[in-house]
Amino acid sequence: MSCDESYDAVVVGSGYGGAVAACRLSIAGVKVCLIEKGRRWDAKDFPRDVFSLISAVRMEWRKWGISIGSDKALFQIHEEGDSLAAVACGFGGGSLVNAGVLLPTPIRTRRDTRWPKDWNKDWEHFERLASSMLGAQVVPAEFTNAQVMTQILEEEIEDYKPDPIKLSINFDRKEEEEGHNLVGSKKLESCLACGNCLSGCPYNAKNSTDKNYLALAVEAGCVVKAEIKVQYIVKDPGEDCLYKGKKWN
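Structure tokens predicted for 4Fe-4S ferredoxin-type domain-containing protein:
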């Protein structure tokens, strides 16, 4: 990125948070630059076997300054205190490698007093909006994992209602020949139930954020800088941060 480039907002990271921020800001007319450490992943690039999965992992022991694996590996695992933290590295962030399960927020979570009170009135609206953007679809009954997930949810969530489980994955076989597309230019194929959701969908059936929120952000003018790592952010002490007449300190 050259020093003479100027933006109203810079978003670091392209996971769910960064993707939504870049999308909404760009649509609102803000000049946005999104910076992502990882590369762009196509379906054919995701690991399909144990050997390719190993090569897609980077292990890092920060305390000792030791690392194994590529800096652009899909999975970045590092020591965090007495635990190991695993994050995804790529355009689309964690949406590339999670299971895509979309569940309504449990009632007890919404009752937490730390949430702003005025959020509650629009909670369902924005959950429906996110579900629509991510192309949530009901898991077909013939998929064995649908039964397993239902059992887990009934055991873990005390106020869980037995609604059909939805994933941000395309199961629509009616459009299998042409592919299915909700947002953006990349068409989705139909899920084959291969079980590789957590290592990136190799059949292009997952509606990760690069196919919806990020696609819309780019269409609205967002500039994407992939394979760039942000080390630190420095504010120029001699300049005020101004946007449309508003001063940000």
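The CA atoms of residues 47 and 54 lie 9 Å apart.
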